[in-house]
Write a structure and sequence with these properties.
Layout lengths: L1 E5 L3 H13 L4 E5 L5 H10 L2 H4 L4 E5 L10 E4 L15 H18 L4 E4 L4 H12 L6 E3 L2 H16 L6 E2 L2 E2 L7 E2 L5 E2 L2 E2 L6 H12 L1 H9 L6 H15 L4 E10 L5 E12 L2 E5 L6 H20 L3
Parallel strand pairs: 1-2, 1-4, 2-3, 4-5, 5-6
Antiparallel strand pairs: 7-10, 8-9, 10-11, 12-13, 13-14
Helix pairs in contact: 1-2, 1-9, 4-5, 6-7
Length: 307
């Protein structure tokens, strides 16, 4: 079993570390165009094995050929956000990168499932699908788990409770029009709406939408990578170990929620083969309207890419 991670920046390298430490595969190939970076990081990670107690082989390469025979390809390559940039500002450059990576990697690893992390996420999933020509169930984007983790974190911080007792759900595109669902969120089984006044819930919802930008504002020269790498590793484990986890992911819709022909964050069953099922939950009129506004924003991104 091999996992290839395309992009050896902070997200890619931290994902490689998490995957190796969990021994999700026999080999992790870390691939990047920058000479020496994947080789150095790969060797450094390999040398943590004796300390952390894992036998996963971690290798680094500059050639996409290293991804041959991969069961899972994780695409993190692309330029990162800088202060003042939206995810959509990255679109043209990252679309070109994702397109070339996915087309070549699908050719040499035809049985792989593609897990997309590059922003703007939902549009890049569409680019990957078109470039690979795969069954849409084998292309899935990491977004909802990260957004939901941020939502859960802020709820726990506000109530001063363990994040383990907080459940939440965020739907829609991975951007400013994502759709956190307070109605579907609870703490120890108690509905969030019974624990916090609406104005505090609204503030948490907005902070969740701004979660990535808040981190970019602090870092100045980079973007989030600890939480994104944790989210993508959870998806990788669900797929490779056929955990059949129900997780919010960017999946290709074929009529669910009255939407079709685009990737959008929705609850899916994730396991062997990728997206095994898409769950369509009942939404209130305002929630459904918000989800469709989010879909409109994704469609606008696709229109700019002429997809």
């Amino acid at each position: 079993m091999k996992i290839s991670i395309i992009g050896a920046g902070n997200v890619g390298a931290t994902t490689a570390q998490r995957i190796a430490e969990r021994e999700l595969a026999e080999e992790v190939a870390l691939i990047d165009v920058v000479e020496g970076i994947p080789q150095g990081k790969g060797l450094d990670l390999a040398q943590t094995g004796p300390v952390e107690g894992f036998d996963t082989r971690v290798t680094g390469a500059n050639d996409l050929g290293a991804a041959a025979r991969s069961a899972l390809v994780i695409v993190t390559a692309g330029i990162a956000r800088k202060p003042g940039m939206s995810r959509d500002d990255l679109q043209a450059t990252n679309a070109s990168i994702v397109r070339s990576i996915c087309a070549e990697t699908a050719r040499i690893a035809p049985d792989a499932i593609f897990l997309i992390v590059t922003n703007p996420l939902d549009a890049m999933c569409a680019v990957a699908l078109k470039a690979t020509g795969l069954d849409p169930r084998r292309v899935v984007g990491m977004a909802g788990i990260l957004d939901t983790a941020r939502f859960r974190t802020f709820i726990a911080m506000e109530l001063k409770v363990s994040v383990s007792d907080v459940t939440a759900l965020v739907l829609g595109g991975h951007g400013d029009v994502m759709v956190p669902l307070p109605r579907c969120s609870s703490v120890g089984g108690i509905p969030l709406t019974e624990l916090l006044p609406q104005e505090k819930i609204d503030r948490i919802v907005q902070r969740t939408r701004d979660g990535g930008a808040e981190i970019v504002g602090h870092l100045k020269t980079g973007s989030a990578y600890y939480a994104p790498s944790a989210a993508v590793t959870e998806m990788a484990e669900a797929i490779l170990r056929n955990r059949r986890r129900v997780l919010p992911c960017s999946a290709y819709l074929t009529g669910q929620y009255g939407l079709q022909g685009l990737f959008l964050g929705v609850p899916v069953k994730l396991g062997a083969g990728g997206v095994q099922d898409i769950y369509e939950i009942g939404l209130q009129p305002d929630e459904r309207a918000a989800l469709h506004r989010s879909a409109d924003a994704v469609r606008a991104s696709l229109a700019r890419l002429a997809l």
